[in-house]
Amino acid sequence: MNRLKTLTLAVAATALAASSLNAQARDFRLGLITPPQHMWSTEAEAFAETLHERSGGEHSVSVFPAQQLGNEAQMVQQLQTGALDMAFLTIAEISNRIPDFGALYAPYLVDDVDHAARLLRSDAAGELLDLMPAGVGLVGMGYGMVGMRQVLSRDPIESMDDMRGQRLRITPFEPIRDFYTATGAAPAPLPLLEVYDALANGQVDAIDMDFDSILILKFYEQADNLLISNHMMFPMVGVVSGRVWRELSAEDQALIESTMAEHLENVLSGFQAMDAAQEEEIRGLDLNIVEADAEFFSEAIAEWEATWAEKAPMLEALREEAERLRQ
Ligand code: 3HB
After folding, report:
1. Complex-level ipTM
2. How far is the CA of 147 from the centre of ligand 1 (A)?
3. Where does ligand 1 bind, in terms of residues with CB under 6 Å?
4. What is the CATH number of domain 27-145+233-279?
């Protein structure tokens, strides 16, 4: 073999090695709507770090919090085309596309955050994730959550009558809209990051929210009545684009799945761990607090059940599982 030919072969071999390396090493993009200080965002960063380490520095993940890549509907579209690789999503957008996920929002399905975490770790909740590849083209890695939903309002809410006509901010999705419509309120869908201004400028009278965000986003500065109702849980799901997933080696799939599942579990246990202290902190603020239970909302719940039992056939299995996990 002459020298030139040898050199050409060597160059070609190097180029091949480099290109196959490039095909393996990835800089994934992960989007989410929560602000940087929210635990979803900090755990997304922690997931990025762990994946980088465990892949021996081969893979990295750039995290885009605070809706930098768009709202959840837009992120789901990007995930479907493969323009976005990963996301931590509220179940809101998923339940708009796969109604069975609406079952997770059945009012008083669970009693508290511990019960919610147990249900989200169950096989019954895992079966919902299996609907995602065919239903939305996403692969679910596991669940996270925030704390239970409460109602913060400018005027006191002491009975369901007080909810009538209230412009009440909701996360944009159908099961929660149907619940508040049944209470007589006028639901106003708004993404998390628009809530503070909407409350401050009077666009809404009340908001559906969790303890954590009431504290970290300081919503209590704009409304001083709190209905501690614990009426719904609020799951999150960690997802990978189905298109991107199919391009990954079995080894990378296993690495990403186990690593993301671990960090999602940190979110579940993190919210379990914070809940009591956050409730205490909120009770220590100068708010007028009223407590509510399923009885308070009984008519609205009956109406919700009538619609969603049919729309979300998985509700029955989830309710049975929740009952088994009630302690
Ligand atoms: C919401 O109220 O829409 C929301 C709250 C969170 C996280 C994500 C969404 O704490």
Report:
1. 0.99
2. 9
3. 34, 90, 146, 171, 192, 209-210, 212-213
4. 3.40.190.170
